[in-house]
Amino acid sequence: MFESLAHFVVFDFLKLAENQLSASVEFFAADALKISLLMLLVIFGISFVRTFLPTDKLEKLFRKSKFGVAYFFAAILGAITPFCSCSSIPLFIGFLEAGAPLGVAFAFLATSPLVNEVVFAVMSGKFGWKIAGIYAASGIILGVLAGVILEKIIGKRGLSISQKGENIFGTQSNLPTVFGERVKYSARRAVAIFGKMWWIILIGIAIGAGIHGFVPAEFFLETLGGNSQIWSVPAAVILGVPIYARSASIVPIIFALAEKGLPLGTALALMMSAAGLSLPEAVMLRRIISLRIIALFFGIVAAGIILLGFTFNFVGI
User: Within 10 Å of residue 179's Cβ, how many Cβ atoms?
Assistant: First the structure.
C-alpha cells in the first residue's frame, strides 16, 4: 500500500523520470509514511493498554517469566512480523513502554528483520523446508541470545532509556479510567513521543533511501564474488551493515549470488546484516538509547550472523 502510494506520488503526480534519484525519493516516501503510521498506532495501542495495566505490574510480569519465555515470545513475535530494521523500532519502543526489560525488547528488534517470511518461502522452494526451517530457527535463537546477553551485560542500567537527562517516554501517573479519557491520553502520548522522534526518523530513512537508490546490486556480486569462502562471510556482514534494505527486496541478490557459486551462508550473511543491522536503524536508536548499548547490540548480532554464515557454509548447505 505505502509503496503503491509513493510510486503514484513520485511518478504520476510529480512526474519524475525513472532514475536513481527518483528511486531514492520513492523509497523515502514509502518508508516515511509506513514507519510514521506504525509508530503512532503502536504507541497509541500500548498507551491504551497501559491505562488498564500499570507499568510496574507489567514489568514484574516480564521479569517473573520462567525459562526465558519473555525472550522467546519477543523473538517469535519478531519472526512473524514482516518489518525491516527501522520498521521494527515502533514495536521496540512499545516493549519499552510496556515495562519490558531491555533485553526482551532487543530480542524482538534483532529477530524481526532477520527472519523474513518472503525469504523463508523462497528458500523453501529452492532448498527445501529443512533448510528454510534451519534459517528461521537460527534467526530466532540469535534474537533470544542477543537479548539475554545484552540484559546480562547491561543489567538494570539498561532500563534507563533517557538521553541528556530527558526521558522521551515520560512518567505514568494519574491514569484515566473512563474510555474517552483513555483514548485522549493514548493519542496525546503517541503524538508527544512521535513529536520528539520524527526528525531523527526522517534522517535515518533519508540515509537508507540514498544508499538504496545509488548502490546497485551488481556492486555486491562484484565485491563478494571473488572473495574466498573464509573471508567472504565477515566481508558480507561488513558490506551489509551500512546498507538499509528490506529482506524482501534483497532476496533476488541473495539467490543470484548463490546461483553464481557463492556459498549460501555468505549470501545469507549479507541479507541478514543488511536487513537487521542498518545505519538508519542506529541513527533512530540513538534518540532513545546510548551509543554503548547500540554498539553492543550491533556487535552481538553481527557476531551471531557471522557464526551462522560459517555454519551454513561449513555443513555445505
Answer: 10
